[in-house]
Amino acid sequence: MDGETRKNPGNGNGNIGLTLRAHGALEDARAAAASHYPDLFAVPARTAIEPAISFRALMRWKRTILGVTAALAFILMAGIWTMVEPQYSSTAVIRVASSVPRVLYKTEDNGTVPLFNAYINTQVSVIQSPEVLSRVFDREDVRATEWFGSSNASSGDVSRLIDRLARQLSVTLRRGTELVDIAVETRRPQDAAVIVNAVAEEYKEFWDEMQSESERQRLSALRDQLTSVQDRIKELFEHKFALAEQMGTTLHEEVRTQMLNDLRGKRAALEMMREERQLRELERANPDQPAGATQDRIDADMMDAIRLANVPMEVQTDATWLRYQEDYVVAKKRLDLAKRQFGEAHPSLQSAIADLDQARRMLRLTEQRLGLEPYSYVANSKLVEHREAELDDSIAELQTQLADADGRVQDLARTDEMYNEQKLMRKDLMDRLHALETESNAPARISLQSAGLVRLTPSSDRRFLFTACALLVSTAIGLGAGYLRGRTDPKIHEFADINTGVSRDIPFLGQLPRAQNILEMEDDTLLGQAINENIRIIRTMLLQRVAEHSAVVLTSPEPNSGKTSVAVLLARSLAAMGKRVLLVDVDMLHPSVTQLYKASNSAGVRDVLTGKATDDEAIMESELPNLHVLPIGKRGSTPDHDILARSSFGEALERWKSGYDMVLLDSPPVLSMADARITAAHADGTVMVLRSSGSNREDAVEAFTTLSNAGARLLGTLLVGVNRGSAYYPYYYQQRSLQAAEMLA
Question: Could you give the CA distance from residue 238 to residue 102 in angstroms, rounded to a whole number?
Fold first, then answer.
C-alpha cells in the first residue's frame, strides 16, 4: 500500500518538483532536528552482516540450484558421451608347467616347492619387460592395428609404444595354478586380440632363448668359490683340534674357570696365615697379658681352620677324634642358634655355652692322648713362613698358567667364530648353486594354453560412472551456487534473518502474506482470512506490550516496506474490538495515510502543531466508528521539516493519548528522515515493519541501532510480504480444502 499511496496529488511535473524540493531540504531538516535532539542523530557504523544459511533458506534458491545443476550436468554429460569411448579386452593364457614333477610339483611327500613359486612370479615381470614388449612392435599384424596407428610413433621410436603398452597390459597369476593371464584393453576388439596374442608368442620365444653362456659362467664361478670355502673350513678345523689337544679339552672356558678357582683358594689360605702371624706378633708384644685373653680375641672360625690345617693325617683318621670333632662342630652351631634366639641370662644360652666348653675339653684331651701338642704360634712360626713361601710361588705359577690359558682361549674363540662363518658361507653358496642348477637345467615348460579371442562386449565402459560423477559434481556446484547466493543476498526473507548481526533478540510480533491491494482484500477470500487472522495476532502481541492510552510509532528502515498498510490494518483491527484509535500521519515527505483517506487539503498535524487548527478541527472520522484519522495537514509556504522537533508535538501527543485508547503514528523511514527518531523518542513504543525479500539486512540492523541510540523502546518487528507457504496461516488453506471436499461430496 505504501508504494501505491505515497504520491502527492497534482500533475506529474508538480510532483517531481515537490519531491526534489523536499529531498533538497532533507539536510536542513536533519540539522534543525539535531539542534533540539542531539543524541538522536548518532549514525552507527555499518557492518557487513552475513546471513545464517539453513536448509530451508537454501531451498529459497532452488531455481538457481536446479538451473546451475541442469546446465552443468548437460555440459559434462555431453562431453563424457562424446569423448569417452568404451574399452574392449582380450585375454591369452600362458602355462608355466614343471618339468620335474617330483621336485617342483606339490605331492603328498614333498609339498609345494618355494623355488617354483618364486620362478613363476618372476615370469610375470619378464612378460612386461621391455625386452619382450619391443619384439611385439616388429610384427606386421601389430603395426596394422588402429591402436598402433593412433600412437603417432615413428618406426624407430618404440620407447613410447613400450611405455604405453606396459601401462595397458595386465599380467596376473592365478592363485594355486600354473596359469598366467595376459590381458590388454583397446578401443577396438580386434586390436586387443592381435596385441595380446603377439605378447604371448613373443614371450615364449624370448623364454626359449634365455639359456645362454652367461648362465653357465655364473655356475662355474659359484663352484670355484664353494671349493675355496671348503678348503678354508678344513684348515680352521685342524687348527681348532690342535689347540684343544694343548689344553686337554675342547671346553676352553672350563679350563679357565678351574684355574681361577684354584687361584682364589690359595690366595685365601695365604691371607689366613698372614692374619694368624699378625695375631701372634701381637701376643709377643704383650707378654704380661694372659694367652687366653689374646686367644679369645681371635676369631673362633679362623683359629679352628688353622688348627685343622695343622692336624696330621693319622690323627684325622682316628674314630674317637672324628666323633669329638663332630660334637664340637654341633655344639658351636647350637650356640650360634641360641645367641640369635635368647638373651645372655637365658638358661638355654648358658647350657649351650657349657656344652661347647665340654666338647672343646674332650677334643683337646683326645688330641693330647694321640700325642698332638696344643697349637702354638711360637712352635709353628717357621712352618707358617715356609707355607707362605710355597703359597706365593704357587700363586705366581697359577697366574702365569692363567695368562697362557687366556691367550689360548681367545685364539680358540676366534677360530670357532671364523669356522662358523665359513660354514654359513658354504651353506649359502650351496643353496645358490642348487637354485641356479635347478633353474638352468630344468626350471619349467612354457606353453600357450589359450589364445586371445575377439570379444564384442565392452570390458569397461566408464561413461556411466563418469555420468554419475558428473551428476554429483553438478549437484554439489548447484548447491554451492545456491549457498553462495544465500550468503551474498543482503535481503531479509524470514524472521530468522532479522536477528542476524543484532546484539540482542528482537521481539517478533507477526507477519503478513504477500498480496496486491492488501487493504482492499475481501474478508471471505482465503488470503483475506489469512491477513485478518495475522493482524489479530499482531494486535494481541502489541497489546501485551503496551498499556492503555499509549502512542505507538510504525516505521521501517527504508521506503516501500508496507508500514502504512500495516498501520491502517492494525488501526481497523483495534477499532473493531472496541478500542478508540487515532491514526496519525507524521510522514512529511510522503503522507500515505493522508492520500489514502484523500485528505491532502484538510487540516492536520502541521496545522495543530502551528496553532492554525485545533484537534477537533483537524481530526477526521473514518468508515469505522472508533477509528479517527489525523492527516499531515496543509503544506505551508516555508519549509516545515523541523516541526516535529518542537515541544508542541510532545504536548499534542499527550492530548491525543488522553483522548484515545491507542494512538498509531505512521512515521517516515528511520534511515531517510530524522522525523522517525523524533517521534520514536516521544512515543511509548516503536514497531519496525520489514518487507520480505525487499528490506536490506544491514539497513534493518542500522535502523535498530539508530532507534536504540535515540532512546526509543522497540516493541518488536513484523514482516510483510512473506510467501504463502508460511506456517502462520496454513489453517485457512486446510479449511478451504475441507469445504471443497464437502461440496464435491
Answer: 40
DSSP states of 514-565: --SSGGG--TTSHHHHHHHHHHHHHHHHHHTTS-SSEEEEEE-SSSSSSHHH
What is the pLDDT averaged over residues 437-461? 74
Q: Are 101 and 62 members of one domain?
A: no
Percentage of residues in the chain with pLDDT exceeding 90? 16
184 pairs with which residues across the strands?
90, 169
- Co-location of 498 and 603 in the same domain: yes
pLDDT at position 711: 86
Measured between alpha carbons, how far is 110 from 439 in angstroms, rounded to an integer? 18
SS (H, E, C) 215-241: HHHHHHHHHHHHHHHHHHHHHHHHHHH
Q: Which residues, listed in sequence order, are joined to residue 582 by a DSSP beta bridge? A: 628, 663
Look at residue 183 and give its three-state secondary structure. strand
Residue 505 is predicted with a pLDDT of: 67
Whether residues 111 and 184 fall in one domain: yes
DSSP state of 275: H
441 inside domain: no
Does 336 share its domain with 350? Answer: yes
* Segment 198-209 mean pLDDT: 86
pTM of the model: 0.48
Under 8 Å between Cβ of 594 and 708: no
Which triple of cell numbers denotes residue 330? 654341633
Contact 211, 436 (CB under 8 A): no
Q: What is the pLDDT of residues 305-327, one digit of tens each?
A: 656 666 676 777 788 888 888 88
Residue 646 lies in a domain: yes
pLDDT at 582 over 50: yes
- Among 613, 604, 602, 560, smallest CA distance to 582 is for 604
Helix ranges, 442-462 (H): none
Which triple of cell numbers denotes residue 714?
522497540
Residues 542 and 598 in one domain: yes
Give pLDDT tens digits for 483-512. 888 777 777 777 777 666 554 567 888 888
Contact 688, 555 (CB under 8 A): yes
* Contact yes or no for 89/459 (Cβ under 8 A): yes
Do 731 and 698 share a domain, yes or no?
yes
* Sheet with strand 662-666: strands edge to edge: 508-513, 714-722, 685-691, 550-555, 662-666, 581-585, 627-630, 620-621
Residue range(s) defining the domain that contains residue 567? 2-7+23-48+491-744
Identity of the residue numbered 305: A
